[in-house]
UniProtKB/TrEMBL annotation:
Residues 7-75 form the HTH gntR-type domain. It comes from the Bacteria. The lineage of its organism: Bacteria, Bacillati, Actinomycetota, Actinomycetes, Kitasatosporales. Keywords: DNA-binding, Transcription, Transcription regulation. This is Myo-inositol degradation transcriptional regulator.
């Protein structure tokens, strides 16, 4: 703690605890101990520690449980808006990503998928559905369609790494993407899959990704838990 800083001590403590949660130093389920113990250990006043903890409770990172104490719930995934895969972003953030492969099929392209990939409607595409987890908790339901023959999508490999990493390994150079972000309420089926109550807010994302030749190589339609996930934007003023 920097006591000479104009930044309040409670805020400094809250930032340090939040960083430890995001980086996996404080795993979900970890107990912080009571306020008196923390205050004594850190050389801070009890009101300072209480205020820091409350700020993280308000953010949904900590929860107070009677008879248990203050417990880490989870960290929220903050994802930058750039052409990267969720798997790689989670791995970089120390979130211990894992994947549950729900399905992998070859099926005729719907009108939406065909328009996104630039193939005739009804043409064969590879459709995969996955559940992405961080620290063992569901974060996102991922649905992706790819042109048939683009990649050898072995089920075991799909469960071990991200789709973009597989593309790069296969020699595909990703160049750009067109992306739309929205939000809606979870259906009962989606809520059960993602561990949320029915009607909980979900972030939606549709993305068409292109390689360096301008070919569409992937169309993704994804759902993210708003309680666990957010996008980071950097906005620049026009000159």
């Amino acid at each position: 703690m920097d006591r000479s800083s104009p930044v309040p001590l409670y805020y400094q403590l809250a930032q340090q605890l939040e960083a430890a949660i995001e980086q996996g130093g404080l795993a979900p389920g970890s107990l912080l101990g009571n306020e008196i113990e923390l205050a004594a250990r850190l050389g801070l006043s009890r009101p300072t520690v209480r205020q820091a903890i409350q700020s993280l409770v308000d953010k949904g990172l900590l929860v107070r449980r009677r008879g248990v104490g203050t417990q880490v719930v989870h960290s929220q995934v903050r994802r930058p808006l750039e052409l990267s895969s969720l798997y790689d972003d989670l791995e970089t953030a120390g979130q211990r990503p894992a994947t549950r492969l729900l399905s992998r099929t070859v099926e005729p392209a719907s009108a939406q998928v065909a328009a996104a990939l630039g193939v005739p409607e009804g043409a064969e595409v590879v459709h995969i559905e996955r559940l992405r987890l961080a620290h063992g908790e569901p974060v996102a339901h991922l649905r992706n369609d790819l042109p048939a023959g683009l990649l050898d999508l072995d089920g075991d490999v799909l469960a071990e790494t991200g789709l973009y990493r597989l593309m790069r390994t296969a020699g595909i150079t990703l160049h750009s993407a067109r992306q739309t972000i929205g939000a809606r309420a979870a259906t009962p089926e989606e809520a059960e899959l993602l561990g949320e109550p029915t009607g909980a807010p979900l972030l939606t994302m549709e993305r068409t990704t292109f390689d360096d030749t301008g070919r569409a190589v992937e169309f993704g339609s994804h759902l993210y838990r708003a309680s666990r996930y957010s996008f980071d934007f950097q906005l620049l003023a026009r000159p």
